Amino acid sequence: MYKHLLSFGHGYSAQALANRLLPVGWKISGTTRDKNKLPELGETGIEPYLWGDSGIEEAFSKATAVLISVGPNEEGDPVFLRYNKLFEKYAANLDWVGYLSTTGVYGDFNGQWVDEETPLNPQTKRGQLRLSAEQGWQSISDLPMHIFRLAGIYGPGRGPFSKVRSGTAKRIIKKGQVFSRIHVDDIAQVLLASLNAPNPRQVYNVCDNDPAPPQDVIGYAAELLGLPLPPIVNFDDADLSPMARSFYAENKKVDNTRIKLELGVTLLYPDYKAGLEAMLED
């Protein structure tokens, strides 16, 4: 059966999904804003398009599924603003549309649990923009939209090891603070499971089983490397960028029951320890 994924903003998570789809016969078209990345996409088996290319509509007309990995900006969601009419035009052709959102749409819950039914109350500008983007996509009638709220993403090339090795890592302590995480390979398997069993208008939290304090993750990375524990720094005294500091403004534990029960997903990396151990082995 013909399967064609159009991937808007084909980056880290989208390529992890592509690595699972290409071997089983999927055709994948992907967009990028960086013309220097076009050859790289082609080398990985992706039909590459520069953002705004006139050929994107033709790819859209042939697609059976669409993945949107582009984040919103102050003007809104770039894909929605530019291509919402195409989504309306070709909605009947699509079996599945996925939007990669963030658990930041929930806001702050003082370290308590949230699930997909929890009322949304983002306190950060980034979370508010994501919520507006979700609402925009959900407003298109007859679109088989699936929302995936991702926790902090890590995986090959994205982890604490380089900072620990270089001696720049710090164990930043903010009392009671926890973060949920997800390995990129587990994002891919959640998306694949949804592609194989579409449930339009559904929302999924995509995270592992173990919301954990950030200092524990840094400490475990140092332990795996056999290096001294990085120094402890109080959050109030930490030299953090405004973006990094904003992550600490919200504190919650994210429940992932739905991806297990509805999609039948068994996480490859159910906690940060399993994920870091596998990354170091690789």
Helix-strand topology string: EHEHEHEHEEHEEHEEHEHEHEHH
Q: What does the radius of gyration come to? A: 19 Å
CATH 4th-level superfamily of one domain: NAD(P)-binding Rossmann-like Domain
Spatial sequence of strands, sheet with the most strands: 3-2-1-4-5-7-11
Please characterize this protein's 3D structure:
The protein has 282 residues and is an alpha/beta fold. It has a domain at 4-152 and 181-208 and 254-268: NAD(P)-binding Rossmann-like Domain (Rossmann fold), CATH 3.40.50. Helices cover 36% and strands 18% of the residues. It contains 11 helices and 13 strands. It has helices at 12-21, 38-43, 56-62, 78-90, 125-138, 161-166, 184-196, 214-225, 242-247, 257-261, 272-281; strands at residues 4-8, 27-32, 47-50, 65-68, 96-102, 113-114, 145-150, 152-154, 171-173, 181-183, 203-206, 232-234, 253-254. Strands 3-2-1-4-5-7-11 form a 7-stranded parallel sheet, sandwiched between helices. Strands 6-13 form a two-stranded parallel sheet. It has a two-stranded parallel ribbon with strand order 8-10. Helix 1 crosses helix 7 and helix 8 runs parallel beside helix 11 (272-281).
